[in-house]
Amino acid sequence: MLNGQTIAKRVALLIEQNVEDSEFHIPYNALKQAGADVIILGSRMNERYQGKQGSLSVQADATTTEVLAKDFDAVIIPGGMAPDAMRANRNTVRFVREAIALNKWVAAICHGPQVLIEGGLVQGKRMTGFKAIRKDLHNAGAVVLDAPLVVDGNLMTSRRPGDLPIFTTAILKRLGLTVPGITLPDENDLNADWWKLGAVWGGSSQREIVQGLQTAIAGERYGLDVFEHYAENATDAEMSRVFLAICDTRQHHIALLEKRLNLLGEQSLQTSTSDPYNHLKTWLQFSRGDASLLRRALGDLQTGVIDMYKLRNKLTDPTTVEIFDKMEINLAREEPQVADLYHTRLVAETIEPPQPTSQPAMIG
Q1: 247 among known catalytic residues
Q2: Residue 361 included in any domain
Q3: Residue 72 burial (C-beta neighbours within 10 Å; 0-12, 13-18, 19+)
Q4: 102-113: buried (b, 16+ CB within 10 Å) or exposed (e) per residue?
Q5: Of 19, 53, 339, 363, which sits 20 to 30 A from 310 (CA to CA)?
Q6: Is the dihedral of CA 264, 267, 269, 270 positive or negative?
Q7: Catalytic residue of the set 36, 96, 110, 156
Q8: What is the domain extent for residue 116?
Q9: Based on the structure, what is the number of domains in the chain?
Q10: 357 within domain boundaries
Q11: Lowest-pLDDT range, 110-114, 116-120, 134-138, 276-280?
């Protein structure tokens, strides 16, 4: 406090090209609402930084070359493709290393921990991060957990955009900040309405979350329908068993999605699948062999994995994203099961049956 006035908390928010937009927007907006002095730090002067999703375009206030870690209360490292450039900048890595040494709060989300790896700052630390870098964290000596938020000493880490409301709340609380008119939930309460905080801070709106759920439900209903058809056209018990198990999983997914939708006060839409049905029925009439059927089923699963991956990384509602994450894992587990069947049937169909051999003439 200076002359009766509280000195604002000073927070460094790192940036590079192709930063994950929401991982910049949400902490920035929340901290500004709480009265913090947020300084955007890039690596170059006079450069405008663009977000990976296209919604962010901002110029840095300063560079990591010219500032000192001692002048900040916290450092935030957002993800996306930006951390790959951050870790290649020795001044940015030095700045983060000094912040850790001075016991400043350092918060990294998604790919952000790559900067900590580069700085040799993860050995023995309990951490999390985006799924694609967890092996890197483990190899660098971190104790890797799969959780929305992991706090170890002055280090905070989270996994993805869906964790942002929890991640940002943890930063605010560690800095002793509050947002007028908002009660911050306990960061360990996974049943809190986190999506509302995300929406207030510039993340996914209720409409966007509902749209994501409706999209997922439509995809799972289509998957249920087509795999029922695949099961009907299976030529043996093993193929039928695998296809029917996939149908059971689709039904489970639909139930989870509809429950979440209902909690948001919405009902699932009844979408028509007549066109996909007709296309599938025509294809089945002219398909040839088990391998052809299994290859089509494999393609459906692979499309589902990619679609779910995109949905999961798009929204900032922890509860909905957790459902999407479980769905993606299930789809990824089913893919090799169908692939194994495909390889077995493909080999069987390409091996020609043995030709009868001519018998030598008997000499009497």
Answers
A1: no
A2: no
A3: buried
A4: eebbbbbbbbbb
A5: 339
A6: positive
A7: 110
A8: 10-200
A9: 2
A10: no
A11: 276-280
